[in-house]
Amino acid sequence: MKTIRYGIIGCGLMGRELASAMARWCHLADMDVRAELIAVCDRIDAARQWFVERMPSVRQSTADYRELLANPDVEAVYCAVPHNLHREFYCAIIRAGKHLLGEKPFGMDKHANDAITACAAQHPRQLVRCSSEMPFYPAVQRIFAMIESGAFGQIIEVNTGFLHSSDLDPNKPINWKRMVEVNGEYGVMGDLGMHACHVPFRAGWIPRNVRAVLSDVIKERPDGKGGRVPCRTWDNATLLCETTDPRGGEPFPWTIKLQRIAPGEKNTWYVEIKGTKACARFSTKNPKLLETLHYTGGEQCWQQTDVGYEPAFKAITGGIFEFGFSDACQQMLAAFTYELAHGQPLRPAAGCVTPEEAALSHRLFTAALESHSKQATAAV
């Protein structure tokens, strides 16, 4: 079995998730390629130590990402660093001859993303992809199949979003995602936006324009040192896009809701598609439930289907059991590793976000900033 040797830059929450996905690679049933973590990098010693103590395969631990990139045994890198570091780190990874799975938004702003996109284009032998886990839920893979087969007919409308309430507490200390100089002017759009864009972009539904309403709900937060500082990033964003379906060229509305302050929501990703022949909706609030409506005349009834453990990349878990976020992370990494080994994704629905799709998200979010500023519709 071929082994892809990975390094992780950024040993925080998502770095640990991806390391866990590699550690339990035996969970995948029919993979002919294996991911192995051999190097980690983070400026915080304790963050790296977690990996060293738990991952026997790790042979390099460094505070300097350049040392990791100089390691000839590292073939691919998962990078999860603050947005303002994306341009420097991502371009360095690509130029070092490493394959890159990078966190969204793939650059703090459009200027940074343009540089990353150009760098990737200059190094076509390197596989460069953006992180996005949620579409790997089995129910969403079924929705992808409906899209690919044309089951929806003419698209009437699409609604996608990512909602959580982690910032509802005004006394929660500020962190880098709430600092415009680190997170970027996109605010919540940079943090959560790609999750809501992945399915429509992969379907080929390209927004023509956008009318955005952005909300700065909590304008200052504790600084963790006894004082308070301005909180200048957008907490919530609602985007209404005029979008075109390439199948028939007909426009339809696509509404995106991205909220860090959504009372009652723990961490909810959702997609809803309505068409003239069929409709479908899914939310991670109930990860087994797929709702569909097929219109053939007469009564129109939503039906509910419990979707079990039916991932794109087969696993040892029985089909009657539930699929969760850690499974989605492993499926995403499996998709990247499979494409790296085979030169193409298993199928379009089982592929990671491409640089072109990441660049489209930046055009959308930049237009959304313009739209909100001018209180008018902006071209994408």
Descriptive report:
With about 375 residues, this protein is of the alpha/beta class. It has 2 domains: about 1-130, Rossmann fold, CATH 3.40.50.720; about 135-325 and about 355-380, Dihydrodipicolinate Reductase, domain 2 (2-Layer Sandwich). The protein contains 10 helices and 17 strands. The strands form 3 sheets. It has a 9-stranded mixed β-sheet. Strands 3-2-1-4-5-6 form a 6-stranded parallel β-sheet, sandwiched between helices. The protein is globular.
Question: What strand order characterises the main sheet?
Answer: 16-15-14-13-7-12-11-8-17
Q: If classified by CATH, what would the architecture of the largest domain be? A: 2-Layer Sandwich
E-strand count? 17
Order of secondary-structure elements: EHEHEHEHEHEHEHHEEEEEEEEEHHE
How many domains? The number is 2
Helix percent reads 25-40%
- Counting helices, strands and paired strands, the structural category is alpha/beta
Provide the CATH top-level class of the largest domain: Alpha Beta
Q: State the CATH superfamily name of the largest domain.
A: Dihydrodipicolinate Reductase, domain 2
- The oligomeric state is single chain
Q: For the CA atoms, what is the radius of gyration?
A: 21 Å
CATH topology heading of the largest domain: Dihydrodipicolinate Reductase, domain 2
What is the overall pLDDT average?
97
The end-to-end distance, rounded to whole angstroms, is 44 Å
The parts where pLDDT drops under 50 for at least 5 residues are none
User: What is the global morphology?
Assistant: globular
Largest sheet properties: 9 strands, mixed
Work out the strand percent. Answer: 25-35%
Count of alpha/pi helices: 10
